[in-house]
Amino acid sequence: MSQSNQEIYHDAVVKRLIQFSVFWVIIAMGAGVYLAAEFIWPTIDFGQFWLSFGRLRPVHTNGIIFGFGVSALMATAFYSVQRTSHVPLFMPKLAWFCCYAWQLLVILGAISLLAGWTSSKEYAELEWPFDIAIAIIWVCFGVVFFGTIATRRIRPIYISNWFYGGLIIVIAMLHIVNNLAIPVTFGKSYSLYAGAQDAIVQWWYGHNAVGFLLTGGFLGMLYYFLPKHSEQPIWSYRLSVISFWAFTYSYIWAGPHHLHYNSIPEWVQSLGMVMSLILLAPSWATMINGIMTVSKAWQKLRVDPALKFIVLSLAFYGLATFEGPMMAIRSVNVVSHFTDWTIGHVHSGALGWNAMITYGTFYFLVPKLVGQPLHSIRLANIHFWLALSGTILYILSMWAGGVSQGLMWLSVDDYGQLSFSFREIMASMTSYYGLRLIAGLIFFIGTILMAWNLGMTMRGRNTVPVTPPPVPEKFRLDRKAGKDETTIAPGVPAA
Amino acid sequence: MNALKLHRILEQNTGLLIFGILFISSIGGLVQILPSLNDETLSTPTMNTRVYDAVELTGRDIYIREGCHVCHSQQIRPLVAEVERYGPYSRSGEFVYDRPFLWGSKRTGPDLHRIGGKYSDQWHETHLLNPRAVVPESIMPAYPWLSERPASAAGDIQRKMQVLQSMGHPYSPEDINNAEAALQGLTEMEALIRYLQMLGTSFDASQADAPMEGM
Ligand code: HEM
Ligand code: HEM
Fold first, then answer.
1. Mean pLDDT of all residues in chain B?
2. In this structure, are B56 and B159 located in the same domain?
3. CA–CA separation, A151 vs A87, rounded Å?
4. Ligand 2 pocket, residue A258 CB under 6 Å
5. CB of A32 closer than 6 A to ligand 2?
6. N or C end of chain B, less CB within 10 A?
7. Nearest ligand to the C-alpha of residue A250?
8. Are B62 and B154 found together in one domain?
9. Distance of CA A347 from the midpoint of ligand 1 (Å)
10. What is the pLDDT of residue B2?
11. Is residue B214 part of a domain?
């Protein structure tokens, strides 16, 4: 590999991906705030089709998940896989291709959604030309990632790489199967599956996009950056290995909890429910493992906003993965399904877990990348409190609103007559939606502060060059002579 | 302990790791998805379920394009209150010609599976042009542009029906040949309303039995 001659970690692509990720969180979260406002003032789409709720909503979800989430995951995967393999990225040009091609895809994808091109399947809305592009870029991501691992200089493959690996492999499988369709035109296709079968396949995808992207991928981030930043080893490596396999095995089964009491066979629903309950075990094992890991670093936690974000995100991870299995119980789901309770659950995971862990990681990583302290620690602390209060207000308003909405929909009087009309219940939601809008604004303002803070830290600065440190004798991986020798720079002990 | 030893091998081999993840993660799908895809009861239409005609299909695709499904479900659960509010609960056989399914995951607005026949065409038109004209407290968006665009604008209706036919939807050659003509002179608004008015009507009320679950 001639490109790794200079033996320096490829960090410029990491920095660029972080910039894109921050760009997307502003755009897509801005869209989320706008949607929240449309719940209160439905006419603020001004008769413009591209501001219409039905078209803007998938821009929010896709922009956040694929723009913000995947860019952050690519950035941190590229960063950590080099450190844990003691070798620069495999095929760095391909990594740059992934970086830019992905951004182009998300931008064009967002425009196509506004234009009304959509498959309608949640988190898989993008039409077939985009699906093909996603598959190609994803394979390139996999080549860079697994290529780096395959050329590593240290024998064990560190646990964070398992989770990133799971993200790459499982999402590829789900994406391809769920999006099979026959094209009609460039912007329209018909799903290969119909009706109930389409629903089962879609929620197998939908739940596991949450599972392996929003959960598994971000767990990879956790397993690298939490020990790194708290300067503590993982509390129990064995527990993390066991929970990895338990997680990978059981998540896949849980999709049907999105279809309780819908027109699908009862055995599928029951299986989905049982497996969702089982899922509580690996989820909480992971959370406990994380909490125990920082338990010796409380001193640092008091003063370091980045670590505060990461630890808080673990708490919300615990909350969302407790609430989820509860909502997967059929008799609870009767109330929560179709209501704003689901939206509350989504955002306890999305804001509390995904956004916070990413923010914490960025606050830690960006100063390291450019070799400069964070522009303003104070601002980051303010951001922390904005994020925390915004998340709590969001969740509380949607819980209160969602539970009352669900109970009112189901309420019948002694004669079997409905107690409330749909319109009455709809009208009773306005104040909850108002609180949610305020919560979203608070969270959004914090995010803008972060963007500014990180921007000032990075401004005009290049990434500092880092050479791979020597691998301790015990873990060194001997490669066959002739393959690796040429790539080893002076100063780095040869294998 | 043995398992951990086995793991040591996995942990040091990229190829095995990839294979291991792929293998473990596909089990659940194979056990759940494959039987469902082969389950004939899920792909057998109920007695009166028929394919969408050219106008209804166009209306349905407008429904998808505008994202009505992000606020409206098309899935009535077998619960007393739900059947009372929306009508007989949904059967899997009613959806066999739905590509994609539109059951939804959020009810910001009411379920629409049996909206067909509930209101007049005129009501729907007024409502879609400005929901607040008929329901003052409504938070549904207005869709003024629908009445300005011709239903045949995309010009792909025959191709659409051919694609569906290739997947087993029983369209006759005449259905497809007459499709363009059927759309002539209609606006997108009219096509959408035609779709709404046929929703859920294939179900014969006499087949309706008691809800399965008390709530
Ligand atoms: C053990 C873990 C979890 C379980 C068992 C679980 C279970 C559930 C259940 C039962 C629903 C409601 C489905 C419905 O009634 O329509 C749901 C929705 C959802 N959950 Fe979770 N959840 C878990 C963790 C998470 C986490 C960590 C996130 C991270 C963001 C998350 C994101 C979502 C999303 C986005 C939806 C909405 C899907 C939709 O309807 O569009 N979940 N989950
Ligand atoms: C300021 C922050 C945010 C606000 C105000 C906001 C607002 C919204 C609104 C209004 C909806 C539509 C709910 C409905 O149809 O009833 C929504 C849906 C959604 N949002 Fe957010 N959002 C924010 C941040 C995020 C973040 C950071 C993520 C992901 C990491 C996220 C993921 C989602 C998802 C997955 C859905 C779809 C839920 C479902 O279908 O059940 N949001 N959001």
1. 91
2. yes
3. 7
4. no
5. yes
6. N
7. 1
8. yes
9. 10
10. 66
11. no
Instruction: Note whether B200 contacts A: Cβ–Cβ < 8 A.
Output: no
A329: helix, strand or coil: coil
Q: Which residue shows structure tokens 């990978």?
A: A248
Residues B180 and B85 occupy one common structural domain: yes
Taking a contact as any Cβ pair under 8 Å apart, which residues of chain A between 201 and 240 contact chain B? 201-202, 204, 212, 238
In short, whether A438's Cβ falls inside 6 Å of ligand 2 is no
Would you place residue A87 in the very low, low, confident or very high pLDDT band (cuts 50, 70, 90)?
very high
At A494, is the pLDDT very low, low, confident or very high (cuts 50, 70, 90)? very low
pLDDT at A264: 95
- The residue-averaged pLDDT of B141-170 equals 94
Count other C-beta atoms under 10 Å from residue B172's C-beta: 9
- Considering the domain boundaries, does residue B211 fall inside one? no
* Ligand number with the minimum distance to the CA of A394: 2
pLDDT in tens, A289-329: 999 999 888 888 888 999 999 999 999 999 999 999 999 99
Residue A334: closest CA among B82, B211, B147, B35: B82
pLDDT the model gives residue B209:
54
Whether residue A349 has its Cβ less than 6 Å from ligand 1:
yes
Q: Is the pLDDT of residue A4 over 90?
A: no
Question: Which positions in chain A touch B79 (Cβ < 8 Å)?
Answer: 261, 334, 410
Q: Is A47 left (phi over 0), alpha (psi -120 to 50) or beta?
A: left
Give the 3-state secondary structure of residue A181.
strand
Q: In this complex, which of A58, A170, A268 lies closest to B21 when CB atoms are compared?
A: A170
- In-domain check, residue B43: no
Q: Are residues B141 and B192 both part of a single domain?
A: yes
Q: How many domains does chain B have?
A: 2
Residue A370 CB contacts under 8 Å (≥ 6 apart), including other chains:
A15, A457, A458, A461, A462, A463, A464
User: ipTM more than 0.90?
Assistant: yes
d(CA B215, CA B212): 10
**Cβ pair A150:B14 closer than 8 A:** yes
Examine the domain organization and report whether B54 and B34 are in the same domain: no
Supply the CATH number for residue B119's domain. 1.10.760.10
Contact A183/A172 with Cβ under 8 angstroms?
A: no
Whether A375 lines ligand 2, by a CB cut-off of 6 Å, is no
Nearest CA among A331, A324, A351 for reference residue A439? A351
Q: Quick check: B71 and A121 CB within 8 A? A: no
Domain span at B130: 50-205
Cβ contact, residue pair B24, A245, below 8 Å: yes
What integer is the mean pLDDT of A402-410? 97
Least confident of A319-323, B82-86, B211-215: B211-215
- The answer to whether A426 and B139 have CB atoms below 8 angstroms apart is yes
Please tell me whether residue A418 adopts helix, strand or coil conformation.
Answer: strand
Q: Is B41 exposed, middle or buried (0-12, 13-18, 19+ CB in 10 A)?
A: exposed
Strand (E) or helix (H) holding A156: none
- Say yes or no: CB of residue A327 within 6 Å of ligand 1: yes
**Neighboring chain B residues of A255 at a CB cutoff of 8 Å:** 32
A245 touches chain B (CB under 8 A): yes
Contact B106 A255 (CB under 8 A): no
Chain A residue closest to B70 (CA)? A54
Q: Cα separation of B52 and A255, whole Å?
A: 29
Q: How far apart are CA A229 and CA A215, in angstroms?
A: 20
pLDDT in tens, B24-44: 999 998 998 999 999 988 988
Q: Same domain for B95 and B64?
A: yes
Residues B86 and B181 in one domain: yes
Same domain, B10 and B116: no
Q: What's the pLDDT at A491?
A: 30
Q: Provide the pLDDT for residue A488.
A: 35
pLDDT band at A3 (very low <50, low <70, confident <90, very high): very low
User: Which residues from A are below 8 Å from B135, CB to CB?
Assistant: 423
